[in-house]
User: Fold this.
Amino acid sequence: MLLFEWSASKAYADSLLIAVASNFSVTAQEIAEQFSAVAGHDVRISAASTGHLFVQIENGAPYDVLLAADVRRPQLIESSGLGVRGSRHTYAIGRLVLWSRDPEIRGQDCLRQLDNLGRARLAIANPEFAPYGTAARQMLQRLKLWDRVQSRLVIGENIAQTLQFVASGNARFGLIAMSQIDDVRLPAAACSWHVPPDLHQPIEQQAIILKRATNNTAASDFLKFLTGDAGRAIIVRHGYLVPGRDG
Amino acid sequence: MPDAGMLSFPGSGALWLSVRLATITTLVLLLIGTPIAWWLAHTSSRWKAAIEALVALPIVLPPTVMGFYLLVVLGPYGTIGRWWVELTGDTLTFSFTGLVLASCLYSLPFAVQPMQNAFESLDRRILEAAWTLGASRIDAFFSIAVPQSARGFLNAVVLAFAHTLGEFGVVLMVGGNIPGATRTISIEIYDQVESMNYDAAHSLSAILLTFAFSVLLLMYVINRRWQNR
Amino acid sequence: MNAIIKDSNTNPRVSIRYALQLGDFDLDVDLDIPMQGITGVFGASGSGKTTLLRCIAGLERRGTGRLIVGGETWQDRKARICRQPHEQEIGYVFQEPRLFRHLNVRRNLEYGLKRAGVNRDSVGFDQAIELFDLSRLLDRTPADLSGGEAQRVSIARALLRSPRLILMDEPLAALDRARKDEILPFLDRMHGELHIPIIYVSHHIDEICRLCDYLIVLEGGKVVAQDDLQSVLVRMDLPLLSGEEAGSVIQGTIGAYDNEYDLTQLDFSGGKLLVPGHIGKNGDELRLRIRANDISLCRDRPEQSTILNILPATIEAIQPETDSMLLLRLKLGTDRLITRITRRSRDNLSLAPGDEILAQIKAVAIRNSPAE
Assistant:
């Protein structure tokens, strides 16, 4: 009997496959390393856009945990029985930054520039399905800038592509994620304005344990680590906010 | 852009944009691809192999890689993009013109190779006969080489058009998804899928398929008729 | 009909000079040929005949050269004058018809016509159709033509360019006997009706004999003979002209026709010849070809012999050919004939240059071109 239990738990204890939204992948790497060191479980990360991961999960992909970039997909996973009920938690809250590398506007008010873009372009992620894009649209609407910038908008398929547009200078301005701007490989910023979170719906990123890992203690351990002090510290360091203690 | 009743359906803007892109790209490729194909077919220069490999490169390169390099080169800090910004004040990326340029590079081998094959199978002796009958080289090209390479031209047109119509990776990278300028139907379909609007994605895909198939069918039927004259 | 055109040196001429390196040998020619009639270029395969034509046409641009046609310099490499093929008013008939397969016969013919130069309309469309009997073929495509028909179209097409010089590179080479016989009459007519000089390349001596007025012989890229046809044929120092085909050409006028025996009488400077068949009307001029092996010699007129033509001749020269055979050149009137006999016969009859003897020519051995 003891032997049976031991071997059963041994089979589960070994490795975790975590599906991570691309924008969080760097942060997730660090978290995974720390978690492995502490808990002894081997963690592997698979990063892609939330949408793609969702479709894969719907079609039986062997992930144990999903770290999404939004709330909607984890909700769908939970309600359709693909995920473990009650395991859905907000692990990070994204922040928007208005950013530019163009030396010509150095020292000027970043936000004011959006009033007359002229020939310049503003890059945002796709508001239809990318969480940072939706937030960007909300913020621009709140500030009554949405109509004005319409003709100069450039839309990236995800926040990573949005960064590409603005880092290459093709778009003079971009509404990108705070977690992106600390990368040493980025060219120097000419202006960088942290968007006040009250200008848009919070960009909540939720995690959920998937059905496959229902009895996997490592999976729930990982989630605990993620939402615990150690995990939160890493997350904040990478430019996100974290929900209040009860969040 | 057509706006009359039946011609206007969700995604029609994107479809016509894709069609315009494919048409203009095909025409440009006929214009610049023909001399390239002709040169390749007749030259004995030692650069021939290198040029052939260059022309064939877009077949091998992942579209996103190509798109990425174009983003850099055509952007305001790139060698070509910089000059364009000085000229027009706007970036070459995120514009229809930029897409045409990118598509021409992307579909270049699909236009050049069929034409090169057709030119290579031309009998030089026939051209000699034309010269001795008073035709200059240009005259002989248009009166003899072109009609006898008709199949090659048709293949080039079909392949370049179809290839550009289905273009995605490159447009994704340098297009910026601007409605009316760079939001092609392939991007539109992709976005609908990302937004989980599967119904819309299905119907747009069906429309694209039907359209593309009809155009291709038409071209091959014309070719058949012509052959049986 | 196909009388030999005699060249008079006062006419404008075509001066051709080329020197270039080919694979096995060098082409090195310096020619001066008449601006009228047909000039033949005879030589073995690979002697440079085609290359020569291509140089004249401007298709071959290597080496040095000069081409002056009727006083106009068309090419002079040293002086950097080098007209493109399409700028020269030349018609070129290749060995293969090289018709444009995407055009019907009419359009093929019109191709050169549309691009004709200053000399425009020197050959009219209808004239060419008539000359080569193409009216039934006009709406056909090249794929529907027989080899002979295609070659006729090809020749007519080159003519319709209204060229000032026509080049023909073995135009009958790709045809069988029957097709050749079909086309030769058309070439005869062309010779007679048009006044455009033609350079005609062939390695068949009988075609040359039938059509040409002036003859150039090429060997290994060099010119070994250039003179009027009859004179070249009776030169005994050209190995090319020896063998089965050695012979000569004379020109005659039809004097009478023997109804009863179906024999035509031809008058020439050396006498009268009887030829089987009704080969023309009285007064028609014809050229006759007589092979060396078909002439025998005798000192005394035989009493009973089947040979109808026995004519007095003077031996001009004797040349050994092999151990057993000799070539002799005979003079009959102002014409010359070549004959071949054994050395033994020469010794038996003690023949020597200057001797007056009788030449026997079998009637059936006389070749001629059929009358119209």
About this structure: The interface with chain A takes residues 68, 71-72, 75-77, 81, 89-91, 93-94, 172-173, 176-178, 190-191, 193-196 of chain B (CB under 8 Å). The two ends of chain B are 37 Å apart (CA to CA). Confidence is low (pLDDT under 50) at residues 1-5 of chain B. Chain B has one domain: 11-227.
